[in-house]
Structure formats: C-alpha cells, structure tokens
Design a protein that fits this description.
By secondary structure, the protein is of the alpha/beta class. It is built from 28 helices and 24 strands.
Length: 727
C-alpha cells in the first residue's frame, strides 16, 4: 500500500524535473569523465523517478549488507596479520598475493579502531524475479553518496507535500554516520578530507562531504609529515595535528615514499605515520586485497568462515578460470557469459560474450587461457528495468540500473537508508557506471506503515550543517585557499564593475557614437584595434580564449570558488555557478539585444554572492576579510582606471580599511601585499598620488607579517576517475 502511494506521488517529481535539474546545476552537482584522453566536467544527469525499495525488502538487504561488510573487514584484519584464511585453505594464497590491491607495505598493521573498510560501496542489481545480487564490493574509495543526498534535499523542498504524505526514510544522516566513523578511529587531531585536486571526477563530492561533516578539505601539499605525525599547514605556516584522513585518492598515489615514487599528488611519509598508529586513514591502505574481482568469488566462504553464518545476499553465479572445471565451463559457454578483467574498474574491461563475433571470441579465449588469474566470468543477470524520463522527448524509457548501497563502519556497522541508483545512458545497455556517461536517481527506502520517517539509531541526530560549518575557522585556511579567497573577491568584483561600466558605453554606441568603446577598452588595457563594435563585444564579453574577457573573469572566479565549498557553504557558491551558466548560455547567442540585457542578471549574481558571504553566520569573519580585501582592492583599481573622483573613492577605501582591521596582528597572505604594492605603484601615473600614499601606509602595516609560503599549481593536480582502472 505504501509503495503504491509512493509511486503515485513520485510522478510529482517528474513534473518538477526541470526545477530539480536547475537546482542541481546552480549548486554545481558535477561528475567529471575522461573521454579521448581529455577531462570533461559535466553535470551529473539526474532522473526524477526514484527507485523505491519497500521497508521489509530493505530490512533484509540491510542485514545482508552488514553481514557482508563485517566479513570483509574480518578478512582484511586476517590477511594482513595471521593469514588464517590461507592456512585453513579457504582462499588459495596465490589469489591473495597476486591481487593488484594487496600491499605488503601494510602487512602487520592494525588500523586505529581495527576498521579497514570504513565506507563500503556495495554494487547490487535486482533480477526480473525481484531477487538482489551483489556484483561488486568497493572498499577503496567508493564514491557517489553525495549525489542522492543532495538531490533528496532539493526534492524535499520542491515537493514538500510528497514527503509529508509518504513515509520515506530520511537519508540526511549519512554525514553524521561518516563523521562518527572518522571520530571513532581518529588518533589525535583534526579531521581532513584529502582530495587529489580540482579536476578529479568526484571533486564535488569531496568538497560537499567536507562541508557536511565539518572536516577540512585538504590538498596533498596542505599536509606534512614530521616525526611520523601528520600535520595540516595553514596559510601562515602553522601546523595543526591531523588525527584522521578521509582520503579520496588511490593507494598507488597516496605516498611516493611507499608506493609510486613518481606520484606528485601524494603525501610523503603518510604511510609511515599510519604504520606508527599516529593517524587513521579512511579507507585503510591495502583494502584492494578484499575487493579484487577474483576475491569476490570467495566472499560467501568468508562469511561462513569468519561469522559462522550463511550469506543473506548472494553473489552473481561466478566462474574462476584458474580452476580447471570453471575454465572449461567458461570456454564452452563464452558466448553466454559476461567476462570481467579483474585489473579494470569503472565499467571498463567488461565484455558480454554474446556481443563478440567468432574471431574476437576466439581471441578472448586465448587470453583467458594465457592469463586465467586476470579474468572472472559471470552469468548474465537480466536486470529489472526501471523507467527514466527521456530528456529529449519527456517520455518514459526503460533502462538498466544498479544500486550502490553504502555501509559505514565505526564503533558499529550501519547501512545507509538510501543509495546511488545509476542507470545506463543508452536503452538496453547493461553497463551503468557513471564513468561511462550514465546518470543517477534518488533511492527511496520506505518506512514501516506504523513507523516514522526518521529511522535513526538510538541517540543519533541529523548533522546540522551550520554547526559543522562553524568548524571551518581561520586556523584551517591553507596558503592556497587564502589565495583562492583573495582572488575570488577580485574576480567577482571585476565581473561586476566592468559590466556596470560597460552598459553606459554600450548605450553611447547604440546612440551612433560607434567609437565610444575605445576609451572603455583603453581604460582596461584592452586592445583597441577591433574592426567594429560587434567584434569588441565578442572579445570582451564572450571570448574564453581572451584572459581579459568577462567570461574568463567568471571562469577564474568559479575556479577559485569551487574549492571553497566547506568554508563558504553551497548556498553562497550557487551565485557563482549561476553566473557561469549565464555567460556560457549568453555566449551561444552573442550579440543580440536580449543577450546584452541578460548580463544584468550576472551582475546581480555577484551582488547576491557578496551578500550571502557577508550575512552568513557560519563564515568566519577573517575569511570574509580575505574575500573583501580582494574585492575592494580590485574596485579601487577599476575605479581609478575609469577616472572616478577622489570623493567617489572614499567609500571603497573605507571598506578596504574596515576589512583589513580584523587581520591586525595576524599573518597576511602574500597575495595581499603583492596586490597592494602593485596598485600603489600604478596610482601616481593615473593621477591618484594621495590615494597611493594612503594605501602605502596600509602596506607598511604589513611589514613583518607577510606569509611567503610557495604555492603549487593546483590546476595540475589531477588524478584517477571515480572508479578508475586499478593498475
């Protein structure tokens, strides 16, 4: 009864599809993919029809998920210590030691709290008969929880009556479960989310979970190991002890001293600190020993061996070519099975035998014979089709879907009352992985008819974002983020003021003064040798290759803003996202009158962004100072370029002074001093010697307080895809 009501009411979301997708877009809910060797940052396609799982169905799934993850944690503890599972003949040793995910570097290490897999992403499919099958265990850096978490928040606000009338279990406790797990294993110090870089495919999730859990978002260069302890370096070079690192980069790149010596995105020495018990790493290094596709074959036996229980959830029927009997089965039925390369992930290396012609099937058979350890084969499970709304036609279209269920382990093991339902981008396609262009749905887990919507564990409560956000203090601002805050202020101001100044010049051109744009260009040090005004408009407003264009300024603002989600909050950053979308859309229709008019919205976005930051209690006052010092330095620069009077400069000068005031006695980021020094040098030749003198006094106040930490080019800090190949 509840399920049928949910399905009826879920149709409301279909009618609100555009509104929901617009909200996802303005909040930057992205998932990057690598295609043809290039990184493409795109919005993660969302489908409004939720997957609905009845209460009793999920209860059974929950028991099976917890059982499976507990057994996998027991296996990891064993295989890196006593290795009883090998001695007792449960798993052949060649499968353990030849696994690409087995690292002898962590042999003999018991992680803090005894937990290896703090976050498990269990990939399941539902057959036509309704039975659930586990396809994969993801125990390294499983991604995807943030997307249904974020989508649900939007759904609740767009269709509040739906959630009042249908008892859907609340999914907002994921950040609490994650933070509880991190706190349980933490040694001594702060919690950080370690991201490999801005261009990682799941960077949105890294920043969002840092925001929600109150952890600091750290790049590799923000961490330093001294005396086998991990420290977080703030913008002034002060060290803050780190107790737990939620890492979002692969083992291979984690520590160049211990793993890949060529890694430029790792933290040198972090494994030594971990081995010494001085820091917890979530998930633990070496977890790949348990989620190898070949090890998957043995998980049911693990459950029986470690827990003394029969598996509740079942593997897809699987064959191991290493075993003579299984290899014969695989080779005889190659055209009926799905073959998986255990060295691949992200949906790559998966081959359906039925899709191969005779010659390619024979070629695959020879590879299996030559490298039987490299492959497994599975029966093809006919997924239960789930409807999605075709974005082109608006019609329902059946697609194959899987479910990534998340299990979080700390003091206890919890299955999250939600999950990431991924669907294929092409009708009939069996591979649904996000890395290959698929989309996602929300997953509704229904409460019992007599129950309540909020099925939390005893004594638990929802994470309150505002309270957690307050933890992002000045002490947790790094040198790179100090730069980001400053330049975010400068670029948002550049967008606002140049657009504001552009419109009067534009009007003069429209009034037949065709050369009126030339003094405008001259004031901004822009070229004046354009054939006509239309060419100038294209270059100044839309040309992404012109570093001085409005579009480039918005892109630069966005690139600085996107890594500041934990410090500033998602709501404030929406406005920069909206400006980005607006200028991209406007550039497609460049030159039309309506298009020019739309640029007023971009200027309004900048005003809304500043207002959001200024009036947001969770944003630490000194962080606001970093932004607004940049903003008013830029305003003084632009106003003096456009010949504003001394009287008109008093207000931005006073604002600059008021935002510098909270920094008295504190170290000053180098970018402050450099920006101020440059402007002081420019002002006399513009006829503002008196203003230069006043700003020079501010510059003297910075003497002896300037932080000079060298910064790395964050744009170069890329790494693997969300479910990237495991080499």
């Amino acid at each position: 009864m509840i399920e049928s009501a949910a399905r009826r009411l879920a149709t409301e979301l279909v009618n609100r599809r555009e509104s929901i997708n617009r909200e996802l877009s303005r909040n930057g809910v992205r998932f990057g993919i690598y295609k043809d060797g290039e990184y493409h940052d795109r919005l993660f396609p969302y489908d409004p029809i939720p997957r609905i799982i009845e209460s009793n169905e999920f209860d059974e799934m929950e028991a099976g998920l917890k059982q499976r993850v507990n057994a996998l944690n027991a296996y990891l503890r064993d295989v890196y210590s006593d290795k009883k599972v090998i001695k007792d003949g449960i798993i052949p040793e060649e499968y353990v030691y030849t696994s690409a995910g087995y690292f002898p570097q962590v042999n003999g290490v018991t992680p803090p709290g005894g937990v290896f897999a703090h976050i498990a992403g269990e990939d399941l499919v539902q057959g036509q008969d309704g039975k659930w099958w586990v396809l994969e265990d993801n125990l390294r850096i499983p991604s995807g929880a943030s997307y249904p978490l974020f989508a649900r928040d939007i759904e609740r606000r767009i269709t509040p009556s739906l959630f009042r009338n249908v008892r859907v279990r609340d999914n907002r406790d994921y950040p609490r479960l994650l933070r509880q797990s991190m706190d349980f294993v933490s040694t001594d110090g702060i919690a950080v989310v370690l991201t490999p870089g801005r261009y990682n495919s799941a960077f949105f999730e890294h920043a969002y979970l840092a925001e929600k859990t109150g952890a600091a978002l750290a790049f590799p260069e923000d961490l330093e190991v001294v005396d086998n302890k991990v420290y977080f370096l703030d913008y002034a070079g002060r060290k803050h002890r780190v107790g737990v690192v939620y890492r979002r980069l692969s083992d291979e790149y984690l520590d160049p001293f211990a793993f890949n010596p060529d890694s430029v995105i790792g933290v040198p020495g972090i494994l030594s600190a971990y081995r010494s018990g001085n820091v917890a790493i979530v998930n633990a290094p070496g977890n790949g020993a348990a989620d190898d596709k070949a090890i998957y074959y043995f998980v049911p036996n693990m459950i029986r061996y470690y827990l003394g229980e029969e598996p509740i959830l079942h593997n897809a029927p699987t064959y191991m070519p290493m075993f003579d009997k299984d290899r014969k089965e695989v080779l005889d039925r190659l055209g009926e099975l799905v073959i998986k390369d255990v060295a691949e992930a992200g949906g790559y290396g998966v081959v359906f035998g039925s899709s191969l012609d005779r010659s390619r099937r024979e070629e695959l058979a020879e590879r299996i014979k030559a490298e039987p350890r490299r492959f497994i084969a599975q029966e093809v499970i006919q997924f239960k089709d789930i409807d999605v709304v075709d974005p082109e036609t608006g019609q329902m279209s059946p697609r194959k879907c899987d479910l990534r269920a998340f299990v979080v382990t700390g003091k206890n093991t919890h299955a999250w009352y939600s999950g990431l339902t991924r669907y294929s981008s092409i009708p009939g396609q069996m591979i649904v992985n996000s890395s290959q262009g698929g989309g996602f749905k929300d997953t509704w887990v229904l409460a019992k008819e007599t129950g309540v919507e909020h099925d939390y564990a005893p004594g638990s409560e929802v994470v309150r974002v505002l309270e957690q956000s307050r933890k992002h203090s000045l002490a947790l601002v790094t040198a790179s983020k100090a730069d980001n805050l400053f330049w975010l202020g400068r670029y948002t101001e550049r967008v606002f003021t140049t657009l504001s100044q552009f419109f009067p010049f534009y009007d003069r051109v429209m009034d037949t003064d065709v050369d009126a744009f030339r003094p405008f260009a001259r004031a901004l040090d822009l070229p004046e040798d354009f054939e006509d005004f239309d060419a100038f408009i294209h270059s100044f407003l839309y040309d992404e290759k012109n570093p001085d264009s409005v579009r480039s300024a918005i892109v630069y603002a966005f690139n600085n803003a996107v890594i500041l989600r934990p410090e500033l909050g998602s709501r404030s950053l929406q406005q920069v996202e909206l400006a980005m979308s607006s200028i991209v859309e406007a550039s497609e229709y460049g030159g039309t009158d309506a298009d020019i008019f739309k640029h007023r919205d971009i200027a309004d976005n900048m005003l809304a962004f500043w207002g959001g930051v200024e009036n947001s209690p969770p944003v630490e006052p000194t962080l606001k100072s970093f932004i607004f010092v940049g903003k008013y330095l830029e305003r003084l620069d632009l106003y003096t370029r456009f010949g504003y009077s001394v009287e008109e400069l008093k207000a931005p000068l006073a604002k600059l002074g008021s935002y510098i005031l909270p920094l008295n006695g504190l170290p000053v980021p180098q970018c402050f001093a450099e920006g101020l020094r440059w402007l002081v040098g420019q002002l006399p030749q513009r006829g503002y010697a008196e203003l230069a003198e006043k700003l020079g006094m501010l510059l003297k106040d910075f003497d002896g307080r300037i932080s000079t930490k060298d910064l790395k080019d964050l744009g170069m800090l890329n790494t693997m895809d969300m479910d990237a190949a495991r080499l």
